[in-house]
Target: Biotin synthase
Amino acid sequence: MTNPLDELVTKALQRRAPTREEAAGVLTEEFDVLDVVAAAARVRRHFFGNRVKLNTIINMKSGLCPEDCTYCAQRLGSDSEILKYSWVAAEEAAEAAEAAAEAGAKRICLVASGRGPGQRDVNRVGSTIEAILRKQPDVEICACLGLLSAGQAEQLRAAGAYAYSHNLNTNEERYSEICSTHTFADRTSTVREATSAGLSPCSGAIFGTGESDSDVISLALELRELSPDSVPVNFLIPMEGTPLEGQWHLTPQRCLRILALYRFFFPDVELRLAGGREIHLRHVQALALHVANSMFLGDYLTSEGQTGDQDRRLITDAGFVIEGKEEATLPEQRQDLVHIRRRGVGTDVAPNV
Ligand code: SF4
Model:
């Protein structure tokens, strides 16, 4: 009889999703956690070899957000003693991006708190993107500015943004438990708008907010419908002053199982270790790299990560190499799925009819 984990690997290599029943097995004690990691590692190695992509966050505008996401220290009414500031100047962001790129970061994530950008904000981020690309023309720039209005994704793309990030965070059924000021549908529609504008879609999750196994699986299925190129996996940092303060539900084993499950659901997608990896994975961060092919370097939006030296040591000690800026992250077959239109209206080339 075929081992169920071998069956999951076979399906993943064919880009087929697990069934809900198969997925549930990965999250429970049905299989030993090391067997689960080893199976997911086979998929990771098949599509991504031993490369680890590094990304860095630049928090362009911190705190004072009118939204009320329960997991976020920047939310309305948060008592967290985080840094609070308005927009960082383009040159300051460009200097931070330069330092990150020299330290190995391939993607620069420009993040701003708030429900979504106004026109002045889009212009400001556009100027920042241009300032960064003048110094570091080879980096990928991802904007993460909240809910987008019509035309904003196109403007960001025109300014040089490569990707847009907007996490779904939790599944539709329980979305109102973690936020009351916008909806799950608002989030999916922004991801779709970014994709339509030719931006590489990045959309992920946050775990540790009280979700069940079934919720973890539902979110994976809902994310798959958006066909993201990258899926960041955050583990809740239960910051003081937020409604989820003191909620420590995760164990390192639980985090590994979730990551492995997401590798089975997103076999050829950039799976990124995001916020909370240090405090929740702790001494098994290296095991997580056998599942995820990407991670953040440096600090997060409002909390500090481990040092860059520790991150680089983690990667090399586990037998991985930092992905070069000239290397494609996604496997060739996947990159070929999306072709930016270069014909038809708006061009001099005949339409595809
Ligand atoms: S997650 Fe974003 S939208 Fe929600 S409160 Fe934090 S900064 Fe605001």
Summary: The chain has 14 helices and ten strands. Residues 4-324 form a domain with the TIM Barrel fold (CATH 3.20.20.70).
